[in-house]
Amino acid sequence: MDKKLILVLSIFIFFFGFKFADAEVIINEIAWKGTTGGSTYEWLELANSGSTEDISGWTIKDETSQLNITIPAGVSISNGGFYVIKRTTSDITPYDFSTAFNGGLNDAGEKLILSDSGGTPKQTLDFSSGWPDENMTSENTMQWNGSSWITASPTPKAQNEDSGSGGDEGDGDDEENTEEDDSSDTSDDSSDSDSETKATATPTIKAKILADPSAFAGQPVEFLVDVKYGSLTYATGKCFWNFGDGTSMEGNVGFQKFTHIYYYPGEYKVLLEYYRSNGSLTVDASDEVVIKVVPTTVLISKVGDAKDFFVELSNNSNYEIDISKWRLEANGKIFAFPRNTVIMSKKQITVSSRLTGFVLGDEKNLKLISSTGEVVHNYGISSTSAENMVKVLYQAPIKAGIEDKDTENSPETKSEIPPETKISAEDLSASAINSGIETKNNVNNYLFIGGLVFFLIISCGAVYFLRKSKNPANMTSGDDFHIIDE
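User: That's the sequence. What structure does it adopt?
Assistant: Structure tokens below.
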């Protein structure tokens, strides 16, 4: 009997004991208010209270998938480990991964969903009705202490303040129900307070601007407004938009995506006022975001040769850029980039000639044109190499005709100038003008002045000899008068 009991206990421990070692990766800390550096300096932290877990391809999204973070490949969190994800603009250190938050964390609240690489939700934090501490300052963060969310000083890649089981192995129930605890405990806490609040007050209308916080000068920025009344989504009413660059827009705009273009770099504060009805004069909800506009620094950085005339584009900015519907044009050929084509920060993409159809020689007229029709880069104009400029400097006098014809036709001169180094008159004139060299014009001026002086000398000499020929040497002064009298 004792042996059977031992066997049963052994089987029970074998099948259920390992549950204590299961990985439990959760969102552990959220800096939704940003940092002292600014409201867009947001970040969040994952923590693992179980065995080492590969989180490659895991995602963190909000309810509308506007916030869409994907963990890169090759990432794992060990037991008690942390993984800090910061918004691109954030100054938080230390951190593990920097990415655009695609609109950021709304100060009015968010519903965050942590899912594994297969799309299975691992944790859901429903703060859509407001963060636990809506008055939190940017000096603090929202932290999970094992049983509830607290507000405390930031602890990136370290244990939270008053941490209970977060980061350490707890009992089985805590391990098994952490996901439920995160959502249920917070929902319980918030639901308790919400139920008390709802008993005395009606829900309020909240408006949220959905837009990428970074943009490029001259390129369209997408905007959308999300208006909620409790759990209801509004798609009617009046919106007043001020884009911070001297432009504004009013009417039933924003419930569908629209675009706005900033023509100059800078930081622009976008303000939204929402009115429940078109004739209302009372603002029912408002929101604001800061859009940082940087110069468009995408260019054609390299092209191939006759064997493979590829085209390389480089993004030299600190932000990734979407070049959807941009196109390359050369000699009547057009190649358009498909939807969702992105060049990452400080990276390049290379397009094969098999796709574009470009060949060697097209580089002279190769242009990169944005989706708005603006020429972003003209490779044909900017590709004058230093080698050609050197050739122009040394060969311009020869091609301009300064040298003596005999010298030009002499064997010595011809041997000094290999045929392959000569350039056409058309190329020469353009290069000479571009480099500021006016050799030919100067020489023509010298020749004109010299010719004029020579002409004056010859003319004076001719007059002198003409007069002398009319006055023979044997003619006297008396003869002169005698001739006049006749």
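The mean pLDDT is 77.
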